[in-house]
Amino acid sequence: MLRQESAPIRLGDEMLNLIGIDNGSDFAPHAEEQMEGDRRLQQLKALVIPNTVNILLNHYPQSFDQPELGIDLTLAGDIQLSGSA
Predict the structure, then answer these.
(1) pLDDT digits (tens, 9 = 90+) for 20-40
(2) Which of 17, 49, 54, 64, CA to CA, is 20 to 30 A from 9?
(3) Residue 1, SS3 per DSSP
(4) Is 12 in contact with 35 (CB distance < 8 Å)?
């Protein structure tokens, strides 16, 4: 399990970077949730390796849906958007 860490994997001459981010508590008050989200975003930015395939493992796919982060693929465990059943 990767929590706020990465695991670069070399495949021959190529490398890919697995990044795991833990979202923290789903039950935190909104202000705390926003601060925690900002902190996780900074942690994610520090784990991305430029010019490498970066794969994000994250519970919620929409959490870091920002192309400028350099994430090539996100694998998520929860694909329901809030309000959907």
Answers:
(1) 988 765 555 666 767 777 888
(2) 64
(3) coil
(4) no
- 63 and 44 in contact (C-beta within 8 Å)? no
CA 75 to centroid of chain Cα atoms:
9
Q: What is d(CA 53, CA 57) in angstroms, rounded to the nearest whole number? A: 13
Closest residue by Cα to residue 72 from 31, 34, 15: 15
What does the alpha-carbon distance between residue 81 and residue 85 come to, in Å, rounded to a whole number? 8
Residue 44 vs residues 59, 68, 83, 84: alpha-carbon distances, Å: 14, 12, 26, 27
Q: Are strands 14-20 and 5-11 parallel, antiparallel or unpaired?
A: antiparallel
3-state secondary structure of 18: strand
Q: Which of 58, 84, 4, 81 is nearest to 73 (CA)?
A: 58
The parts of the chain modelled with pLDDT lower than 50 are: 84-85
